[in-house]
Amino acid sequence: MKKYILIALVIGLAHSTASAQMSVFKIDWNVGVPMGDMKDFIENESYRGIRIGGRAWIYDELSVGGEAGWQVFNGKWRGTQNVNGNIDASGTQFRYMNIYPVMANIHYYLGEDGGMRPYLGTNAGVTFINTRTEFGLWAVSETSTHFSVAPEIGAFIPVGVAGAGLNIGARYDVAFKTSKLDMNVQSFSFFLGFIFLN
Question: What pLDDT score does 81 carry?
């Protein structure tokens, strides 16, 4: 069900930019690296990430937009660990974290139309996080909603086909702790994707 909600949000975000004088639709593949508190829960990097969104220029150097994404982290842990506040689990645990950010953004660009456009920007919104710990026949799962921010740096690089190009860059995502998940979920990610200009 979450996948269908995510797809509907992405289509809405992309459609909302279509009426602007110039807009872009983008799809990125992300490689995420856990940082901070999150690294204590899962230390493995994730190659399973995607973000889809749109941006509309309000000035030549400034755009606003939105995006939604999905990043999956997983790892194996051995030992005794308190799970969900009231269960001590011993043995091998398999840990999963599915992260679904839905954010608005603003970006500032260098360069000129038709050429490479380096940019700095920030994203802010909500992130839905599902954590799951499996041990033996048992599993504990929890879903929480977090306020989140993600500063980023990147560049749009035009390629041979008119109106198309590459999007490359890096960003730092922080989903702030809540009463349901008492950790700041932080990750550093590199992304590579495609852009389509209108």
Answer: 67
